[in-house]
Write a structure and sequence with these properties.
409 residues; Aspartate Aminotransferase, domain 1; four-stranded mixed beta sheet; alpha/beta; globular; 16% strand; seven-stranded mixed beta sheet; Aspartate Aminotransferase, domain 2; 2 domains; binds pyridoxal-5'-phosphate
């Protein structure tokens, strides 16, 4: 029975609170192990994992093939740098090319870095063409990362405040609003940057046809469509890439989170023609294409791109969405909306939900809240139906407690 405040958890947290920068506010639990869609803390308590390391642990914890590939590669060579070639990076790039719209891959280490690569690609393309285009249009409530370029494109004031001046020439328009996008386009627009579904913005699915309309507008204006698939990619939505649901292909996409199955890796995928603009010496990353991270990525892509694996994710998704719709009905006093795609859902409340993850922990569920109003469900894609149901049952219980509180007060 999970109980907060075991001796080991507390001891480590006391140390961490002193030594680490206070830029996070972790739940009071130190994770030391995991198996599939369950994790274990330093005091031996077990939790169902509905966070998945923020949509990272696609294959869950301690996945045998993933662990084996990492161990094997670690025993061969850990790092090479890009002054030489390495096998896992080449093999992973081939897989990404074979299974996406793209022809060329740039590897880096995080989502923000992958977004930066897209921003630099857009600038370089129009620099090379001699057109003075450099402006980027991105969307309100979007999230693209914390480095200054990616941060500038992030359409949420709370992340940007205190870090100005930011990149010039970036404008945000309301997500899903094609008219606003059309109005914001100028002859200086180099690219439109967007997530296929807002992740940190609250798992917001745009109106159907939105991606297609963005594709059409960018084509009409001769600028790039940059798709940030850092959270939506690698099977999260029930297809390998989020854009597949909309029948469009971007000019470049950023990947990270799920790609390494838990190891840090990022990637930018683009076309042959555009990739030529980032030629020798124009961009780079010391750790980019790290052989261990790429070996992990190779296993993740092999497992996740299997049609039976993806079909299972879509089946579980149907079940999840049905159950969440029932919860929304049952708890309609507090639940404003439930939405999502694949094994990725948001439960929006009309009350502050930031205390709920801590209560969930006491009931054996690892859960996170985004923006104070939305609970995000993003379990490992390998979760089984029973575990999924058990986690949903905890959320059900938490929502019941929420309703009863104001009436008692
Ligand atoms: C998480 C996220 C990022 C940033 O990734 P980091 O690895 O934290 O730099 C960028 N874009 C989207 C859509 C994300 O969800």
């Amino acid at each position: 029975m999970p109980a907060e405040g075991g001796a080991q958890n507390e001891a480590w947290i006391a140390r961490g609170t002193k030594a680490l920068l206070g830029n996070y506010k972790p739940l009071p639990v130190v994770l030391v192990g995991g198996e599939g869609a369950r994790v274990k803390d330093a005091d031996g308590n077990s939790y169902i994992d509905f966070v998945g390391g923020i949509a990272v642990s696609a294959l869950g914890h301690n996945h045998p093939a993933l662990v084996r590939a990492i161990m094997e590669q670690a025993g061969k060579i850990l790092h090479t740098a890009n002054v030489v070639w390495n096998e896992p990076a080449i093999a992973l790039a081939e897989k990404l090319v074979a299974r996406s719209f793209g022809d060329r891959v740039f590897f880096c280490n995080s989502g923000a870095e992958a977004v930066e690569a897209m921003i630099k690609l857009a600038r370089k393309v129009f620099h090379d063409r001699g057109e003075g285009r450099f402006e980027i249009i991105s969307f309100e409530k979007s999230f693209h990362g914390r480095t200054l370029g990616a941060l500038t494109c992030t359409g949420q004031e709370k992340y940007r405040v205190g870090f100005e001046p930011l990149l010039p020439g970036v404008r945000n328009v309301p997500y899903g609003d094609i008219g606003a996008l059309e109005q914001a386009m100028t002859e200086r627009t180099a690219a439109v940057l967007l997530e296929p579904i807002l992740g940190e913005g609250g798992v917001v699915v745009p109106p159907s046809g939105f991606l297609k309309a963005v594709r059409d507008i960018t084509q009409k204006h001769g600028c790039l469509m940059l798709l940030d698939e850092v959270q939506s990619g690698v099977g999260r939505t029930g297809t390998l890439w989020g854009y597949e649901h909309e029948g469009v292909a971007p000019d470049a996409m950023s990947l990270a989170k799920g790609l390494g199955g838990g190891l840090p890796i990022g990637a930018m995928v683009t076309t042959e023609a555009l990739g030529q603009h980032l030629g020798f010496g124009t961009h780079g990353s010391t750790f980019g294409g790290n052989p261990v991270a790429c070996a992990a990525g190779g296993v993740v892509i092999d497992v996740v791109s299997d049609p039976t694996f993806l079909a299972r994710v879509r089946q579980l998704s149907e079940h999840l969405m049905t159950r969440l719709a029932q919860l929304a009905k049952q708890h309609r006093k507090v639940v404003v909306d439930v939405r999502g795609r694949g094994l990725w859902a948001g439960i929006e409340l009309n009350v502050d939900c930031s205390p709920l993850p801590r209560r969930a922990l006491q009931s054996g569920l690892l859960l996170n809240a985004i923006g104070g109003r939305v609970l995000r469900v993003a379990p490992p894609l390998v979760i089984d139906k029973g575990t999924l149901d058990a986690g949903i049952a905890v959320i059900d219980q938490l929502l019941s407690e929420l309703v009863s509180e104001p009436t008692r007060a």
